[in-house]
Amino acid sequence: MKLLSKAHVSQRRLIEILRVIENASTPIGARAISDCLSSRGYDLGERAVRYNLKILDELGFTKKKGYSGRVLTPLGSRELNDALVDDRIGFVNTRIEEYMFRTSFDPKTCRGDVIANTSIVDKSNAERVFEILENAFGAGYTISRRVLILDEEECVCNLEIPRGSLGIATLCSITLDGMIMKRGIPVLTSFAGLAKVTERQTSGFTDLIAYAGSSLDPIKVFMGRRVTSVADAISKGSGTVLANVREVPVAASSLVRSLLDEAGKAGMDGLIEIGEPSEPILSCPVGSGKIGIAFYAGVNGVVAAEESGIEMKTAPISILIDYAKTRELK
To answer: Residue 313, class by beta-carbon neighbours within 10 Å (0-12 exposed, 13-18 middle, 19+ buried)?
Structure first.
């Protein structure tokens, strides 16, 4: 059954609502859905969202989870994956560009909004997760030591923390892309992949997925495959970690290096390597007239926690947070 079988309802609007529900880490209500749609350019009030949710419920694509909100059903997930596949191509890059534009972090003042990944964990496992995160930060496989801890029933954007759980927001490397873009430098997040670490040195990518033309976040794809060994890289010095590559014009090389130095002093690091003009970086192709810049993924710490058997629900590139509200894990 396709969405257009419900008369007078925009197919695009329903697909966008399904996307919001899919990206939410927990059941999400009409008000939060309306806020998310507004940030994407859809002026749809809470009442209109409720009307559309009723239709999606009737189609079997969504269902209520008590008073918490809606979740996708298996049928809804299939519809979202199968319907409008062509429309989904490039959606990830569009979303990244949107977040890059909205970030406002200034490394000189250490103020502004940064992009964060969010994870939800049972409170009983929180201390163990914090310990693993600290080890990942110490090993240098993440972007920043700073995190935002959200208590149960606390709500940020479309994320509401369930009872008995904690939310952990870790900084995302796309924040650095936003900083570069705000300086007037064209930047393209081109690839994400598995990077091999040997004797604490990152030698190259063993698998890559391009962001362009992808209908899913490549980092999320690799997390779902469970093919990393971040914990081994941390404890033994050898393993596979998540990383990504962006490209900037060769002419901007000096300015970008200066900006990344500023970011490092402000506690935003995770830099692996800056490549040579038009040359591959860590075996990843780079376009003509560009230089590649490789960073570790901000989710490596929580991925290491998942590898240890701790159940977590993580959403990469999911919210904007005020840097001033984060704190450093030591």
So the answer is: middle
